Every structure is written in C-alpha cells, then in structure tokens.
Amino acid sequence: MKIAIFGPSRRVGVVVDNDVVDINGAYAKYVADTTDTARSTAAAALEVPADLNSFIEQGAGALAGAKAALAHLSANSITTGLDGERLVFALDSVRLHAPIDGKSRVFAALANFADHMQAAADNTASGSDKATLSRLVSGGPKYFIKDPRVVSADGDDLQFPRRTDLLDYEAEVAVVLGKRGKDIAADDFGSYIYGYTLVNDWSIRDNVSFGPDFQYSKNFDGSATVGPWIVVDEGLDPQDIDVEARVNGEVRQSGNTKSMIHSFAALGEYLSRDSTLFPGDLISGGTPKGTAVDSSIRDSEGGFEDDSAFLNPGDVVEISSRAIGSVTNTVTGTRTGKK
C-alpha cells in the first residue's frame, strides 16, 4: 500500500494505480454504508485519520480500515463521499507533499556505504582527507539530522543555494517509524518499521568540515527531498532495497541497502539509546558511490581538479527504487562561480 499526503489540506491518501483516494473520506463512506452507526465521520476520524502521524499511530487498524474502504469503493463504483465530496483523484491532477509531518525528524546515516567512502578516498591525494574518511567509516554508526520543516517533495524545484558552488545529490532509502520506542534492541527493530520512502540528501560540498558545523552543509531550504509516498505492508526486506540516482537521464548511482555498513536495525538501536523515537520519524540509510563528491578527483590541497560532476541550474535529478517509486526535482537559480 502506498500512503501519500496530497492536496491543499495535506490529507492522507492511498495511491491505487494512477489515482489517489482520500482514505479518511472513503472509510467514513464505508462505515456509513455497512454499519448502523450514526457517527461514521467520527469513527473515521478515530480509526482512519486524515493526518499522517495519527494515521501511522493507528498502525494495523488504520491499514485494515483503508483496505476495507478501498474494496467497498471498488466493488460499488463509488467516487464520492457522504456529502458528495470527491474521494478519488487522478494522481497527475493533485500535488503530493513529502510524506513527513513537521513534528517528525529525519535522521540521516553518515558514511554508511563502504563503496561511497572508498571511492572518495581513492580520489583524494590529501593524507588528512584520507585519515578523516577512514575515521568516519570506523567504529559505530554516525548520523546527522535534516530539518523536516523545509523538506521538498517530488516535482518541487530546488533553488541552488547561494552559499555554495558545489551542489551534490545523494540517493537514499529511508525507513519510517511506526511506533514509539526507546532503547530498542536491534533484533526487535523490524517491528518498529512502518514503511519505506526515498530521500535525496542534497549536500553542499564547499569546505566541508566534519566538526560541529557539519550540519550547515546538510541543511538549507529543500535540502531533503522525501517521497513520493510511504510503501507499507508489502513484505519488503529493509536490507535488500535498490536505489538509483540519475542526473539528466544519466545513471550516476546504483546501489542496494544490502551494502549498508550499519543496518537499519543497528541504526535504530543506536539512535534510540536513552532517546525516544516517535511514529513518523525517518531514518535514512546513507548513499552508495556515484555522488559528485566521490566521483571527482581532489588535489593535495583538498580542491577538485574537475568539478563538472557537480550540479548546475537546469539539471534534473531523479532518485528511484523499483520497490518504492521515484522523486524528481529540477535545480533552479544560479551557480555563482561556474557555469
């Protein structure tokens, strides 16, 4: 099942083929048609809520209600709700928002694909850079946080940040948490995974420091594209999901979560130590090789001999997975010092 957020009211929808169904309205119609209750709208608000985090918190019950409502609509060719409101929309006629609530967090794994880190190390002549990359790979999980309030969605333009001349892409798979948990054992983490979505971890590569200000290179308006929806209840193996990045149609990255250094379970255990994870939180698993930064040769001073792999205004970046879907964004604005 594909759980999306759509329209100006940011309601939960279920994507079916080329349509998106207002699932709260559909469930209210189902309850009214199949039970004696006089409070079908109230029942729907409780059991199959219209806002994302409430829907996620209802867990299996909300998913079962959604399936029942979809079957009822399909069997009876129903397209309108209790008050005649539209329930079924063509997917290409509505705006899909990033499937994350503003209260939720985006935890992003750092240095979590060996091939990505090895490629970066192979392409640098700086001993200090090699030592830094080795340190990042060694030891336990490492992460940073993206600001969920300024995420971007499939189809949004990404404004080229004025503070950079080196803008990069990172194709990633993320898990969405389905229930609250603290001090979660890795062996138990699977039960906390609600579903899966895609992330483009847009990154600034000018003078990157892995010190206290590292997050400055990872956070700007639109710097995490999330979507296009959350794939739920499809029996996916979190450690066997493919992911790919294309720039202007050219494949730049092609990887699989099986190559993660630290699994989603290990990340969940690490992130939940003494800290509560909440329904709707995202954990993004890191990126495979093929980014601009790991594909470009650095000189002994840390600069790039050729920066043509980095993004330019007008570039179209697509992140995709056969198991999940795809998100596409166009870079706009001006690359200040180059093309």
Automatic annotation (TrEMBL):
Keywords: Metal-binding. It comes from the Bacteria. Residues 106-331 form the Fumarylacetoacetase-like C-terminal domain. InterPro entries: FAH, Fumarylacetoacetase-like_C, Fumarylacetoacetase_C_sf. One of its GO terms (biological process) is small molecule metabolic process. One of its GO terms (molecular function) is catalytic activity. The keyword Metal-binding applies. The keyword Transport does not apply. Signal peptide: none annotated. Belongs to the FAH family. PANTHER family: FUMARYLACETOACETATE HYDROLASE DOMAIN-CONTAINING PROTEIN 2A, FUMARYLACETOACETATE HYDROLASE DOMAIN-CONTAINING PROTEIN 2A-RELATED. This is Fumarylacetoacetase-like C-terminal domain-containing protein. It comes from Rhodococcoides trifolii.
